[in-house]
Amino acid sequence: MTAIRLSILMFYIQINPFRRFRIVVYSTMGFCLASGIVATMCFIFRCVPTRNAWAPVDWGCMDTRALFMSTMIINLMTDLWVLAIPLPMVWRLQMPTKQKVALMATFALGFLSVTSIDSPQNTCRTIPC
């Protein structure tokens, strides 16, 4: 998911040359990268020692359900933010309002297709929710 968000944000940088917009996008990229690295490390090292992750006994491990849910919430909030970044720019375009709304709907459709990959139903298939 982090790679998908980063690629969308890199696209945003290419379509808008304004400095303030780029600062927002670069900050978002940094947050996405940092949260992706932290989530990966938490999943890898959720048990101490790490070999306990494959042991039938679940002692010395983080609460896997809480880890999945917190990661899912952070991903959802980040996805909403990535969707919202270009909307002010689209609204300022010099085109009819119908076309602006259609363009925003296109962004929203892309958002729905990406977030369906990381939906609670997919997470709850992996862990009991």
Description of the structure:
This protein is an all-alpha fold. The chain has one domain (2-126). 71% of the residues lie in helices and 0% in strands. The protein has helices at residues 2-15, 19-44, 64-84, 87-91, 97-115, 120-126. Helix 3 runs antiparallel to helix 5.
Question: What's the layout of helices and strands?
Answer:
Blueprint (H helix, E strand, L loop, with lengths): L1 H14 L3 H26 L19 H21 L2 H5 L5 H19 L4 H7 L3
Supply the key terms.
single chain; 129 residues; mainly alpha; 6 helices; 71% helix; elongated
Summarize the structure.
It contains six helices and no strands.
Q: Tell me, what's the shape?
A: elongated
Tell me roughly what share of residues is in helical segments.
Answer: over 70%
Termini Cα gap: 21 Å
Strands, total number: 0
**H/E topology pattern:** HHHHHH
Structural class: mainly alpha
- Rg, nearest Å: 18 Å
Number of helices: 6
The low-pLDDT segments are none
Main sheet summary: none
Mean pLDDT: 83
Strand content: under 5%
Q: Any idea how many domains?
A: 1
